[in-house]
Design goal:
The complex is a heterodimer. By secondary structure, chain A is an alpha/beta fold. In chain A, 36% of the residues lie in helices and 17% in strands. Helices cover 6% and strands 52% of the residues of chain B. Chain B has 1 helix and 28 strands. The chains are: A alpha/beta, B mainly beta.
């Protein structure tokens, strides 16, 4: 494991930092990643489906830590990041325990939901979940020290539902893919549809197939016939079917969800609030457009820098407290903070067709008694997370 | 600009000049990010009297000590210098990569500029356009302000939430002052004792003592009906006597009048969407406010603390200068 020191290597080599308690401590963080990440196989990356990751989480983190250097230096603080791949749930758990023993103050994960939980339960450290959007991590399976930067599935579907309300596209045809994840995400979409008073006029399963006997399930024209709707909401976690659905519907109606208009945490074409500079820094460093997952990783780096700046001398408890409570600037026009009830980062969402950013959510006119960002995702009164923070 | 389009632009200018541009008295010059042109407003009638083509993505606009106008163009990596008397571009000055905001040394010889993508503050020789020095600063540097004696330069970094204090003589950062989140623009009180810094994501202004660079105070803004996260201060200007400051409150769609000595917020005036940069006319009777999200400029009567008129300008307007 190699620590990447961000400040004052010479100073460290000279020794006084370790000796004198008065000087700043180093906030050590460990990023846990899947060893062989199926999401990052070349064939998948080349598809570049909207909403899917575009590369490893370490990329975004590195950009954030590089740009945090000045801020850290100003208070003589340091952040050191180590990356640890894990092949199995057990390996991830073991790596988490080893990182804690090795002095890590924060763990970052870009792991499947069950692995994330195993890691969170194995240590007494704050864990930042960068890339797993499943709602159960914010609900039934939430943990007191588990924080989430990527928007939950519910936040995404709420953002889309708000946009449909704003457009008055209230009658929906819901198409759902065959995987268990599709079923789960369709249920989440239905919850958002209900929350915002939209109506599902027809709901059908789809399947990728060229078998003429399965054409009712596979042919876009047949799937989109027989009902009158304002938009087609497609739930396709894989992405291949959804990609080819726009312009192939029997009625001339827009496709939304996993193709067409897609709710995202970030898009490289976002033009406001200094976003182009962020996307440009990322593209310059890694020669690819910055995706929503990259933004989440970058924000995790910003959160680490923010915690180190808020508590330059530590100790770990002070960092943990600062991490949970220090608002972060994510170049989306407003400060963002973690929700006290489920550890989710509240944030504006972007709606993109892949070419640009068409809309932002919360949409204008949607109100909330305390913070309009809490109209996206599980709100406090829902009490879906029972863990106390 | 290639020669042909330059000639076309010159022709346009000549025509415009013939049509009555020649008298520059009482003109507000507005830069906008998506037009590659400046919009000219007659300050007497408060109507648009024309546009002047300029470099690409014009942002910060200021007057030079010799009375000429200078606009920094982020996408042209240069500034356009315009003679307000003729409304003609007199020269281009290279400003390095992606210049955003700038200031000029009191003797007019050096231009200090923030290069946002390179995270640098550059010193440019105003006469030759040669880059004299560049200094690494925090990411997304924005506001640039030089002290009245020309010895100290202040540059904000939006990402690092710092004001970099740069010693001009040695071209070194001598101090990093922690201010609020996303610091943007600055104003120095006429007595030179205080540096006021707007914090876009903190709904506040940080007051830095220029003597020891300590934070001397913070002014928080509150607007009825707006939540703190919607109050995003950017533009700031002060009266010549240093008694009042005017701050554009961004998404709160208001400008704030602030009593400088008391550090108290007084009147709040409703203007357009995302009230951004602000400037006063010579008599300090009217405040000109650029509204970045409603593509217009609002003229505010200072004594009455009331908007007089909003005038449509170019797309994504950025800055304004009043030439009288």
């Amino acid at each position: 494991m190699s620590w990447r020191h961000l400040r004052g290597l010479a100073l460290l080599l000279a020794g006084p930092v370790a000796a004198g308690g008065a000087l700043a401590a180093t906030l050590k963080a460990t990023l846990l990643l899947p060893a062989d990440d199926a999401r990052l196989e070349r064939s998948r990356l080349e598809r570049a489906y909207l909403g899917h990751p575009g590369g490893p989480a370490s990329d975004g983190l590195q950009v954030a830590l590089d740009e945090g250097r000045f801020e850290l230096e100003a208070v003589q603080a340091e952040v050191a990041l180590a990356t640890q791949p894990a092949a199995t749930l057990e390996a991830a758990k073991a790596a988490a325990i080893a990182a804690e023993k090795g002095g890590a103050a924060v763990l970052l994960t870009d792991l499947p939901a069950d692995w994330t939980l195993a890691v969170a339960d194995a240590v007494k450290l704050p864990v930042l979940n960068l890339g797993e959007p499943s709602d159960r991590l914010r609900g039934a399976d939430c943990r007191a020290r588990l924080f989430h930067i990527l928007p939950s599935e519910r936040m995404r579907s709420d953002a889309l539902a708000q946009t449909l309300v704003a457009r008055k596209w209230s009658k929906l045809l819901l198409l759902t893919g065959p995987s268990p994840l599709d079923a789960e995400r369709a249920a989440t979409a239905s919850a958002s549809i209900k929350r915002y008073g939209l109506q599902v006029v027809a709901s059908k399963p789809f399947k990728l197939s060229a078998d003429p006997r399965e054409r009712e399930l596979a042919n876009p024209l047949l799937l989109t016939a027989g009902a009158s709707y304002d938009a087609v909401w497609v739930v396709d976690s894989d992405g291949e079917f959804a990609r080819s659905l726009p312009y192939r519907t029997v009625l001339p109606r827009p496709v939304v969800g996993d193709a067409g208009l897609v709710p995202l945490a970030w898009h490289a074409q976002f033009e406001r609030f200094g976003a182009p500079q962020v996307s440009r820094r990322f593209a310059k460093a890694f020669k690819r457009p910055m995706t929503a997952q990259d933004w989440a990783a970058w924000m995790a780096g910003k959160a680490l820098v923010g915690a180190a700046v808020a508590a330059p001398k530590g100790p770990a408890a002070a960092w943990a407290k600062a991490l949970a409570s220090t608002p972060i600037d994510g170049s989306k026009g407003t400060q963002m903070s973690f929700r006290a009830w489920d550890g989710q980062l509240r944030q504006p969402m972007l709606l993109s067709d892949g070419q640009g950013v068409i809309a932002q959510a919360p949409v204008e006119g949607i109100l909330h008694p305390s913070n309009v960002l809490d109209t996206l995702g599980a709100d406090a009164p829902e009490k879906s997370c029972k863990a106390t923070r | 600009m290639d020669q042909r389009s330059m000639r076309a632009a010159m022709f346009g200018l000549a025509c415009a000049a013939a049509a009555g541009f020649a008298q520059a008295q009482g003109t507000a010059w507005v830069s906008s990010e998506k037009d590659d042109a400046l919009t000219l407003i007659d300050t007497a009638t408060l109507t648009v009297k024309g546009t002047v083509p300029t470099c690409k993505r014009g942002r910060h606009i200021q007057r030079l000590p010799d009375g000429k106008l200078m606009v920094a163009c982020t996408d042209s990596n240069a500034a356009d210098v315009i003679d307000p008397a003729t409304a003609k571009s007199v020269r281009r000055i290279p400003l390095g990569e992606e210049p955003e905001a700038f200031d000029i040394s009191p003797d007019g010889k050096t231009i200090y500029v923030s290069n946002e993508d390179e995270a640098e503050a550059s010193f440019i020789d105003a006469a030759t356009g040669r880059k004299l020095k560049s200094i690494k600063v925090g990411e997304e540097p924005e506001g640039v302000k030089v002290s009245a004696d020309g010895k100290t330069l202040y540059v904000t970094s939006e990402v690092a939430s710092l004001v970099h204090v740069i010693d001009v003589a040695s071209a070194k950062v001598v101090r990093n002052v922690k201010v609020g989140k996303r610091p943007r623009r600055m104003a120095i009180t006429p007595d030179g004792k205080e540096l006021w810094v707007t914090n876009e994501l903190d709904a506040s202004v940080t007051i830095v003592s220029t003597a020891d660079h300590s934070v001397a105070g913070t002014i928080r803004f509150e607007v009825k009906g707006a939540r703190a996260e919607d109050i995003t201060p950017v533009g700031i200007t002060m009266t010549r006597d240093g008694k009042r400051a005017f701050i554009g409150l961004g998404k709160a769609n208001h400008v704030a009048f602030v009593d400088v000595a008391a550090r108290k917020v007084g009147e709040l005036v409703l203007v357009g969407k995302r009230a951004w940069n602000v400037t006063l006319d010579k008599a300090e009777a009217r405040l000109w406010v650029v509204n970045g999200l409603s593509d217009d400029v609002t003229v505010v009567d200072v004594a009455g603390a009331k908007a007089i008129k909003s005038i449509p300008v170019g797309r994504v307007p950025y800055g304004v200068v009043v030439v009288e």
